[in-house]
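pinning this so it doesn't scroll away 📌
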Amino acid sequence: MSTVVTPPASAGIRALYAGNARAVVARSLQATRSSNWAIVVSGFFEPVFYLLAMGWGLGSFIGDVTLSTGKEVPYAAFIAPGLLAVSAMNGAIYDSTWNVFFKMRFGRLYDAMLATSIGPLDVALGEIVYALLRGGVYAVGFLTVMQVLGLNLAWTAALAIPAVLLVAFGFASVGMAITSFMKTFQQMDWINFVMLPMFLFSATFYPLSVYAEPIQWLIKAFPLWHAVELVRGLTTGALSVAMLGHVAYFLVMIAVGVTFTTTRLRALFLS
């Protein structure tokens, strides 16, 4: 009579994660230094230009804006945290979608990586950590610009940096999971089709109250709205218990995104 030996649970974990995600991050940093630095720099200046054009140009005609907590802030201080959240989203989405798509479908880099001791969870975490590093650079730089312009209205603005990293983590993990299903450049255009409405209608440039109530509930489902509200509350000092809900939203995004990404990479390259 034969006996079936069940492998320990740790064997399954080792098949997914080898503790070498830093090698994936190091490779991405090297690639940035050699060829992609101009793209990284341009990603920082885009929200700065929006802030100067909309915040100071259009803001001179609008005046103060009333937040959901009843606090009034200048229009530039209203849109600046929204643009900071958008910057985190854009940086994370670029690195976890177009960048990953090229490596996966054309560069075949993941085939080579997963042929070594690196596991699919190492690849997923490595790519996401690189996106977080880029998002962190954007956050510190843009927050510095806001400080110079006097748009940080409370000491809690310092907490916007970890908040932005949380936002970038959420978008990067979900973005990479979605990209794993994409097969052509035409399919990748769907990502921009989703991002543009979020950018325009997630209370980035005007309060949510301008919309009809059914539209408001739709917008509240957008991850960018949660990001904007979280960062805006920190930079303006308009704190509320609802901010915990925004944090929970991104924690769920991260858990779902990392799980799906790891599963997909394993199915694509190790099955």
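📌 and the second one:
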Amino acid sequence: MNHNRRLSAVIAVSCAIAGMGLVGCEESTKSDSDASATRTTAAPKETADEGAFTGAKKFEIDGRSVNVSCSGAPADDRPVIVLMAGGGDGLEKMAGIQKTLSGKNRVCSYDRLGEGASDQPDGTQTIRSTGKVLTSVIDRVAGDRPVVLAGHSLGGLIAARYAPDHRDRVKGLVLMDATSPTQTADLNKGIPESATGPAAELRARTLAILQGGKPERLMVPDGEVRSAGDIPVEVIQHGKRYLEQVPDYGPDLERAWSNGQRAWRGVSSRSRLSTATESEHYIYVDQPDVAVRAIERVTSQAADRA
């Protein structure tokens, strides 16, 4: 394997293992992203309800500009769905499932600081500080309505960390191959410091991101899974293995990732774990029907409990 191919493999694996997008992580679905970008950057159409705009709109939150996209009509009996992309991905990455879901739901997505069309963070971010931005986004797009958070990868981890402290607002979760709650420990155990070649590059690159590297400069410490009560939760893990680039460590890393998905079930006493058998890390791209059905189920269950 030449240097360029080897580096591309390392980056691709880093996206999966860290649960974060690194440079080049969007290449496999670039055509979908390019087509979606037009839909998510259209000028917003305002309605009488301040939060019920359609299209993309920027809000100032604590002095930083945050890019938000919403579609679909608000329904009094259904929560607002908030989509949360993985690290390295802007909101346009989820435009396809946002459009599908908005047929009968109010659906919004946003670029976290450092991603997409939002401002860069003014320093290192924490789970708490990125959660404050999420609260402000929810206040603007949902008002007093409850929300269902549907997060992929790093977006799933943030959603699962956020929900226990915001039970009054978050009434359901869908976690799509969410970053493991013990990702740093998993990586340190799975790839030793003595590793060389692509595995060593993967280890160093991923740990740097987890410790506050670009693009979001977000510190992602390991931690216990806390309960958000008995809200409906669906955890979906990928079914296709794709870690052949580090054959000495791939099987252990895959097992640790699966253990992390099982651990996320602890966020609710009403959680369900399933496997998207034909998907790699980007479940909502590889099998969008699986993602859409899970989000709609959780949203309907949350509405029935309201």
